[in-house]
Specification:
This protein is α+β, with helices and mostly antiparallel strands. The protein folds into 2 domains: about 90 residues, SH3 type barrels (Roll); about 90 residues, Leucine-rich Repeat Variant (Alpha Horseshoe), CATH 1.25.10.10. A 5-stranded antiparallel sheet has the order 4-3-2-1-5, with helices on one face. Helix 6 runs antiparallel to helix 7. The chain is rod-shaped, with a radius of gyration of 52 Å.
């Protein structure tokens, strides 16, 4: 009897349009739109009235939840047995599919460092080598002969790459430093060192002149 009465109630509600009413969801998944009389939770039977007339009485344990004063469309079909009993409009939005992880980008290749060239047309020189050369040239100005001899030997071993740095130090005020520079250029400077040797012929130190003159004499043979 109650089942038939419930169906009749739903049919009566379907003939009306949208209105403000309570939404009652039953334990079996069905949904009823009407007006719940009294306060909830109820200790006895719950009476529900419908727009256009009619009412329904249900036991409290048959009611799952009640949404008060909701805007309802009575022409919307109620939940079917075996379904979740919630109108499509009340279903939560579907979760968006989780996107695939992005492919890791290719590792950037490190930018190759280029050595700073010295003079135009000259080959670039390594910074470490440049520091080594400058250190030895500084040692040529030391008062202790051991420091000068050791630095002169090292610069001769390095060869023509030292020539641009020796040219800058060729006018050093210490005569022993200038003598050592001319000896290095005479041994390793080659044709590129000829200009420095000719300039040394005007040096005020006689030994610098002598070393330069002998080196130029050998190169002419």
């Amino acid at each position: 009897m109650q089942k038939n009465l419930l169906i009749l109630t739903i049919l009566l509600a379907a003939g009306t349009g949208a209105a403000s009413a309570d939404t009652i969801e039953l334990q079996n998944g069905r949904i009823i739109h009407g007006k719940v009389i009294g306060k909830l939770p109820a200790t006895g039977p719950v009476r529900i009235t419908f727009t256009g007339g009619g009412s329904l009485t249900l036991e409290p344990e048959r009611i799952l939840r009640v949404l008060r004063d909701s805007s309802c469309d009575f022409r919307t079909a109620t939940g079917k047995p075996g379904s979740d009993g919630i109108p499509k409009s009340a279903k939560p939005a579907e979760k968006k599919p989780v996107g695939l992880p992005k492919k890791p980008g290719e590792k950037k290749r490190p930018v190759e460092k280029t050595e700073k060239p010295g003079k135009t047309g000259a080959e670039p020189i390594d910074a470490k080598l440049e520091a080594e050369i400058l250190g030895y040239i500084s040692e040529l100005s030391r008062q202790r002969s051991q420091n000068r001899v050791r630095a002169e030997t090292a610069l001769k071993r390095l060869g023509p790459v030292t020539l641009p740095y020796l040219e800058k130090a060729a006018r050093h005020p210490f005569a022993l430093t200038r003598r050592a520079i001319i000896r290095i250029v005479a041994e390793t400077g080659g044709p590129d060192g000829a200009d420095l040797l000719r300039a040394a012929l005007n040096d005020k130190d006689p030994w610098v002149k002598k070393i330069a003159r002998e080196a130029l004499g050998k190169s002419r043979r």
